[in-house]
Amino acid sequence: MSVSSCLVVGNWKMHGTRAEATALVDGLAERLAASGPVAVRHAEIVLCPPHPLLVPVGQRVRETPFRLGGQDCSSAPPGPRTGEVAAAMLRDAGCGYVLLGHSERRTHQHESDAAVRAKVVAAQAVGLTPIVCVGESAAVRQGGQAVRHVTDQVLGSLPPSVDATATVVAYEPVWSIGTGDTPGVADIEAMHAALRDALVGTHGPGPWRVLYGGSVRARNAGAIAAGSGVDGLLVGGASLQPGEFWGICEAVSLTRTVPP
Q: Which of 116, 135, 128 is nearest to 234 (CA)?
């Protein structure tokens, strides 16, 4: 059998107290203990809690296969930047990954591709793997410009010197997030192929990892993750439910074992 791991990233967004975070991680750990690591042996699982919860969650997952990620970082080094978090601080807190350019930050904080690009440079300089998010609105898709918009966005969000082996791209159609409405698998495959072609054509062969995010649930995770060119999933609301998130991880792991 040939096997490749699949990345599953849980984005907790702006949710969670310390007690809720502990209960969530303990719920995942209980399911891991009950089903055994073999159930998710082909899934690399990353938890991205809000910044104040990074240390308690990091302490909780230390003896588990789960990994830690931040939800954003500053492009600047530590210094007089009140309210911001430096990439080096995330690394010191135990993070291996950081989400950058999520659609909610592009919308609410008006982050440009250039701003995201500067954060990618800062993240990779301290050894973090950036998960660079891109996606189109309903209006852009209905106007027939989805592929051009998303490929322009990803190329604008990555520096020329980007390290492909330490970079993840997450395609999240903005119109799908939290709606329960997801693109068809063929549409996801087509967008992932377009992204990979753009990345290879501009930055070289990689390897590039491209995730899908947008209304992911246990019921559709396996079908999406089995799609051609889908290297994992970015999970939002469902990552706050231990049973649902664990079901997603199990479903994804099953897709990584391919008969010879």
A: 135
The question of whether 172 is a catalytic residue gets the answer yes
Rounded Cα gap, residues 191 and 222, in angstroms? 18
Does the pLDDT of residue 187 top 80, yes or no?
yes
- Could you give the C-alpha distances from 69 to 63, 66, 174, in angstroms and in order? 16, 10, 22
Sole residue written with tokens 């490749």: 4
Q: Tell how far CA 132 is from the center of its chain.
A: 8
Sign of CA pseudo-dihedral 57, 224, 238, 153: positive
pLDDT in tens, 139-160: 999 999 999 999 999 999 999 9
Coil vs helix vs strand at 147: helix
Residue of 102, 104, 203, 244 marked active site: 102
- Report the distance separating Cα 4 and Cα 53, nearest Å: 31
Q: Which domains does the chain have, with CATH numbers?
A: 2-258 (3.20.20.70)
The active-site residue, picked from 44, 104, 136, 172, is 172
Written as one letter, the residue type at 29 is: A
pTM of this structure:
0.95
Torsion angle (degrees, nearest 10) of CA 232, 121, 91, 170:
-10
3 — pLDDT class (breaks 50, 70, 90): very low
Q: Is 102 a catalytic residue?
A: yes
142: left (phi over 0), alpha (psi -120 to 50) or beta: alpha
